[in-house]
Design goal:
The chain is mostly helical and 95 residues long. The protein contains four helices and no strands.
Length: 95
Amino acid sequence: MTTTSAEKTGAHTAEAAGVITGARERIDALDDRIIGLIQERMAVSAVIQEARITSGGRRVNLSREMEILTHYSEALGKPGTALAMTLLELCRGRI
């Protein structure tokens, strides 16, 4: 059985299905960019950690992490805090 675009999108009209399909393509492209930026952030974080450890410091700077959590929380609300925690975990690993 062939699935129509309206069935794939949950839309009830072909016009709405077209809008949804186009918007989903934009979301997919945005997600690819976001993933690339996260990977870049991870690489930059690794450089910072290496420099800190090499200089005799600790791997993690908790005051800096609090700044990041506050920044995301202020910009995105409570979900921003969860997002920042996930980013921090990806960039420094679990403590």
